[in-house]
Design goal:
Elements: E1 4-13, H1 17-25, H2 27-33, E2 37-41, E3 44-49, E4 52-62, E5 66-71, E6 80-86, E7 93-102, H3 106-124
Antiparallel strand pairs: 1-7, 2-3, 3-4, 4-5, 5-6, 6-7
Helix pairs in contact: 1-2
Length: 126
């Protein structure tokens, strides 16, 4: 089995950090763009895609800055994270996504994130 590797993607967005954080850290926000339905209970989020449910726990977060999840079925050191940064010069909001994938699957995973972020941008009006 090949080792999964960390990769990062950056998306410039035209919205406030507070609004973006709401979209990446709450069941209502994530249900708008990330999965068909999202529920959370005691820091464990259940993501439903066409009847398939995957669960992830929140391992760390800082309001309006970042939230890190770990899939319950994944290795302990793996996670996916939404981090909100601001550029120094233009003060533009940047969403930085960190995720893990097999080396030969990084391109496909990146394209999937691109598709999902386009949906989020549409819903945000950003």
């Amino acid at each position: 089995m090949s080792k999964r590797q960390l990769f990062r993607l950056e998306y410039p967005l035209r919205c406030s950090a507070a609004l973006l954080y709401e979209f990446v850290s709450t069941s209502n926000g994530l249900g708008e763009w990330f999965a068909d339905k999202v529920d959370d209970k005691d820091g464990v989020f259940s993501f439903n895609w066409n009847g398939t449910i995957e669960k992830a726990e929140v391992v760390s977060q800082e309001v309006d800055k970042f939230i890190r999840f770990r899939w319950l079925h994944a290795a302990k050191e793996e996670y996916f994270e939404f981090r909100i940064e601001k550029t120094e010069v233009s003060n533009q909001t940047i969403l930085v996504i960190s995720d893990f994938a097999e080396k030969n699957e990084v391109k496909d995973q990146s394209q999937l994130w691109d598709y999902q972020i386009k949906d989020m941008v549409h819903r945000l009006g950003a």
